[in-house]
Amino acid sequence: MSNTAPGRHFLQIPGPTNVPDRVLRAIDMPTIDHRGPTFKALGERVLSGIRAIFQTEQPVVIYPASGTGAWEAALVNTLSPGDLVLMYESGHFASLWKKLAEKLGLKTEFIAGDWRRAADPDAIAERLQADGEKRIKAVCVVHNETSTGCVAPIGAVRAAIDRVGHPALLMVDTISSLGSIDYRHDEWGVDVTVGGSQKGLMLPPGLSFNAISQKALAASEGATLPRSYWDWQEMLGPNAKGFFPYTPSTNLLYGLDVAIEMLLGQGLDRVFARHARHGEATRRAVGAWGLEVLCLDPGQYSGSLTAVVMPEGHDADRFRQVVLDHYDMSLGAGLGRLSGTVFRIGHLGDFNDLMLMGTLAGVEMGLARAGVPHRPEGVRAAMDFLSER
Ligand SMILES: *Cc1c(COP(=O)(O)O)cnc(C)c1O
Fold first, then answer.
1. Tens digit of each residue's pLDDT (9 = 90 or more) over 351-373
2. Residue 176 alpha carbon, nearest atom of ligand 1
3. Which residues make beta-bridge pairs with 339?
4. Ligand 1 centroid from CA 129, angstroms
5. What is the pLDDT of residues 153-207, one digit of tens each?
6. How far is the CA of 241 from the centre of ligand 1 (A)?
7. Among 84, 139, 186, 354, which is most buried by a count of CB atoms within 10 Å?
8. What long-range pairs does 244-249 form, CB within 8 A, spacing at least 24?
């Protein structure tokens, strides 16, 4: 649809997400001197406030980059050429992170997964147990696998690593769970947490994060992969005074300041509960339509998105096109090996009950219009759930 279309576009992909008007207005301000006193106050506020979102007291570095940059930063700051990294094949994003690691000159090993379940702590423990020589230097796990809608139990992964007494660093991608699904960098003993701005944080794309443990910081001193732009040490010095070593994304930081205030003002517990509830309502709709949720383990269902399996013989991308053409709504595509067979409903970020009902109505009308076999009862099922007392 052209940009003269009436009403609001529904951006229901699992990131980038809808940006609240308050954040848009905050960004729409003159750029200031990033070495001046006004910036210093902003820098100090966001660098401190973002720690609450990661549930950490440790440093969080903010890069003017998409999430992929923060993936790279986590690896180049802590590892050396040829180091072995254990990763879990939870889906498309785990696969991309693995490819990135290989391009950097790391050795990688995948624990094979079926793209319908999240990382399995027992399988990780078993592999680490077999690593008598401690060749594995890091374990990398995606918390909320955005391609499948399955959430990994990070606390249990930590416990599994501790159980076998393995010294590997634990690195976690929370790009699509930060600010939407409970995540505890300190309590779960994560060494590097990777985050991004454009999903649960309700910002445009362009900022990404590394939350860093003391153990990761110590590892960075001996790590020899080449790094310059991503170097934590270059960041942490100026960050201590609210500044950055190079020009930060000043206007996105205005937005981050407001987004942090909104999330903490709502209360993180409430934010997580809202997302979980919208996930449940969405799954009830999917079930009532007679369609299948991709994630096979109910204990791993995601509060930020739901991936839906298309019935045999129906193309998910054609269906998404029908929804876009007729209802001006963007749904997420199936990624990688799920291309064409899955579509994804994003229900994260700046979102409420009526926006979800609009979204589900758009899906249900789209199913009818595209001739996809279904029962037209999903909207009703979600509505019943959301109006339960
Ligand atoms: C979106 C996403 C990424 C990629 O981030 P970019 O900002 O596109 O670089 C990586 N991992 C997960 C889990 C994501 O959801």
1. 999 999 999 999 999 999 999 99
2. 15
3. none
4. 30
5. 999 999 999 999 999 999 999 999 999 999 999 999 999 999 999 999 999 999 9
6. 29
7. 139
8. 244/34, 244/43, 244/62, 247/34, 247/64, 248/34, 248/43, 248/62, 248/64, 249/64, 249/206, 249/207
